[in-house]
Structures are given as C-alpha cells and as structure tokens.
Amino acid sequence: MTHNVMSENIKYLPDVRSEMSHADFWTDEDELLMTQEEIEAQNTLTISTKETYMYDLKNQPEVVNTIELNKALRTSSKADADYYLGWTYLESDKKAKEAEFNKMINNTQNLQRKEKYEVKYGVATRRTNLHTFPSDTAIWDDPKDPECNYQYLASVRVNEPLVITSVSKDRKFYLAKSVCCSGWVPAEDVAICKDKEEWLSAWDIPKEKVLVVYGDEVYTEMSVTGRETSEVLMTMGTVLELADVENPNELIDNRSAYQNYVVYMPVRNPDGSYTKKLTLIPENEKVNIGYLPMTKNNIVSVALEALGNTYGWGNWLNSDDCSGYIRNIYKCFGLELARNTTLQSAMPMAKIDMKDMCR
Predict the structure, then answer these.
(1) Tens digit of pLDDT for each residue in 44-93?
(2) In whole angstroms, what is the distance from residue 252 CA to residue 282 CA?
C-alpha cells in the first residue's frame, strides 16, 4: 500500500511505469553469468589491454624521474589549458584567461626534482575525485550550469588504492593513478602507507574478508568518540576488510558490535600517514560479505539502487556519470571496468554494436 501511494506522486517519462523501477519487472533469471575465477581472469586481461588505459597498480615503477615528469606535466597541462581556453569559465561569468590557467599549470611542478624519486603508495580515506589540474577551481562551460565541472575526471572510493608519482608545488595535491584513471587528488583525502606491503594489506583483501557496498550510499554512524570514522560516505563498489571479533561486548567507538559488521576503515593521521581503525556498519545496510554473485537479477537490483540520482560529471556531486555508474555496478561483483565508454568498448570481451538499432 505504501509503495502505491508513493508511486502516484512520482512522475515518469512517457511509456514508463512505476513497476519498471523494480528489478523483478526486468528479469527473473538467476543463472550465474561469471564465476569469481572468471571475473579475476577478465580483470587481468582487461588491465593488460593497452587500449583500455588501465593501470596494473601492483606492478608500477617504484621510482620516477621528476625532472622529466615536470616537463611532461607542463606540456600536457598546457595542452589541456589550450583546449579549455576560449570557451570555459573559472568560477566566473567571464571567459577564463590564459594567466588563470597558467597558475594551475605552474602548480603541477614538483619542487623535489630528482632522477630517482620514490613513488608513494596511498589509500583514499574518503570518497574523493581525481582532478584535471591540481586545483579546486571549477571549470565551467556555462556559468549558469555550475554543476558541470570539467575539473573532475573520476571518483575514488574509500579504501581504493593509489600510486602517487608526484606532488603539486603547493603540496595540496598528489598526482595519482587509480586502476582506471590518473589525475590530481586532494592530499587531505589520502593516507600514505609506510611501504608497499602495508599498502597491499589495506586493499588486496582475502576473499573471505571482503565486505562490499552495493547500496548507492552507505554511511558509517555518527560518532563523537570515533571522529575519524564518523559519517564516512561509502559509495557503490566500496570494498572494506572484515575484522575478526572475539568479544562483541568490547566497545568500538563506545558501541558494542552486536547487529553490526566490524570492518577496518582507512584513516589519515595528522602527518598524512596511513593507519586503519575498527568501525561498525549496521547489518541492515546494503553490504555483502564477499562480492555479489554475477546474475542478471543481481545486476539489475544493484543498478536500480541509483535510480533517480543526480548526474555527476566526472563522478562529482557524490554521484556518477554514465560510465562511472556502470563501473560501480560491476565493481560490486568484483569486475573492473575501464573509465569511459570509449575505453570500455575496447575491453577484450563480447560486444554488441547498437549504432544501427532502431530507436
């Protein structure tokens, strides 16, 4: 009865009915489409395919030449600025000027100019975004539409790994690689691991210890005693490590563990270093122990979790764009997809060309 009353107050496009908002309208097939072993094999193949522009994070070079990298960054960021110059606005109703872009270009330069600069291994401690330039200044194509911001490239989920190859001149941004994209990430959103081993232990989690978020948005509970892990936003596809609990009466941030999953949450220390802290996620949240089985029913159910959400260009606004949305859905099953539609179409798997289909 509640559902019927609610649906009467929701407007739909022509030929769209309220029952279409529910997974059982679309499929009743529960056949397993891919096993976890097949998914892992596909991930290896996809990441190794050059045309997907993905990164094998475990096997990235451990040192970079920041002298040469600075030169390359100046060249590439100048090309980006040239592309945006003349038709974009930098948080203003006046067209952006070259001098404004030059400030962002200059900030790409790492002050530590070394032939052998050791990369850093980071973990996102909050849901964040990779940027085009090391800046928070928005890039608009229309001042009347400030929610379309070309500064943003891709989202980074909580506990997602990053390989950091440089730092901005003002030290407020890291140049980072995620599995599907590279860009500038706010340093305050990342914790730096002491070594590669600690970094791997944070996110390369044994299957039996995986807790995956399949709901659109899941937050940790608000806490005064556990401020580092209070109200942390975990978006679809977030993966955390389950912790063993011997005594559920032992308090975690002033709460017992009953009716909760106990997980490790990444935390950024005041000096920027990594640590992990126990926290609780209520059992009623949309999370699952282990990756979800890849069936049509499950895919549709997860996809509909985001129904009606705002469009987030570059995964901004704590939301997703079209290809980012698809990435997040399939991450709930353990499958890694390339960043955008062009790169996703380059993935080595069966494809259906729809360009000549009837509309």
Answers:
(1) 999 999 999 999 999 999 999 999 999 999 999 999 999 999 999 999 99
(2) 13
Q: Which residues are 277's β-sheet partners?
A: 265
273: number of Cβ within 10 Å: 13
Q: Which helix (H) or strand (E) holds 265?
A: strand 260-268
Q: Which residue has the tokens 């030929």?
A: 15
The backbone torsions φ and ψ at residue 344, rounded to the nearest 5 degrees and listed phi first, read -65, -35
Half-sphere exposure of 235 toward its Cβ, with a 13 Å CA cutoff?
Answer: 28
Write the CB contacts of 66 (distance below 8 Å, at least 6 apart in sequence).
110, 112, 113, 114, 117, 166
- HSE-up of residue 97 (Cα within 13 Å, Cβ side): 5
pLDDT in tens, 121-148: 999 999 999 999 999 999 999 999 999 9
What is the rounded distance in angstroms from the CA atom of residue 334 to the CA atom of residue 319?
20
The reported pTM is 0.94
